[in-house]
Design goal:
Layout: H1 6-55, H2 73-89, H3 94-103, H4 107-112, H5 114-123, H6 129-156, H7 164-172
Helix pairs in contact: 2-6, 6-7
Length: 178
């Protein structure tokens, strides 16, 4: 019995070969998984690069920063269009736009709309139009109150010949001359 059975040797060789093939298959599966992970990472990189490439636009000329608004009603007429144009050209929206408009107000004007900023922070509603509306209403009422005061002074002084344009102001306030 020194000579092992040739059939037994053949079976052992086949088992060894089968074991080797199983190891090869497992190694190939691991390699396939690694290649798939590399492919997914490459696809992600390509997607990010494509997104960056599409988002990069030719540099547009930037509008200069408008001057800080000083609260004077007559400067509002030029400041409002320039600040709105700046927001459009720089594509600022939401909190960025609100903060930019806030920054373009003089400190005393920031104090007058501090309640609007606090409300925006509480509600997370960052609309710069709120600031524009506040100063627009302020400019209108400030201008009308000055005209009304002038009209009343002229009327009280008996200068009725100069009242015709100011009577329109009184009419705006639904007032009748005394």
């Amino acid at each position: 019995m020194s000579d092992p059975n040739p059939l037994l040797l053949l079976v052992q060789q086949l088992q060894q070969e089968l074991q080797n093939q199983r190891l090869d298959i497992q190694n190939q599966r691991n390699e396939i998984q690694q290649l798939r992970a590399d492919l997914d990472a490459s696809r992600t990189d390509v997607h990010q690069l494509r997104t960056q490439l599409l988002s990069v636009q030719t540099p547009r000329s930037r509008l200069p920063d408008p001057p800080r608004f000083n609260g004077k009603p007559y400067t509002l007429r030029t400041w409002l269009p320039s600040i709105k144009a700046k927001l459009r050209s720089d594509q600022l929206v939401g909190a960025d736009a609100f903060d930019y408009v806030w920054d373009r107000l003089e400190q005393s004007q920031q104090a007058s709309v501090l309640h609007l900023r606090q409300s925006a922070e509480e509600n997370q509603l960052w609309d710069p139009e709120v600031i524009f509306s506040f100063f627009s209403v302020y400019a209108i009422t400030h201008g009308n109150s000055r005209r009304l005061f002038s009209a009343l002074l002229l009327y009280n002084r008996g200068m009725t010949n100069r009242l015709s344009p100011t009577l329109l102001v009184l009419n705006d306030f639904h007032m009748k001359p005394m």
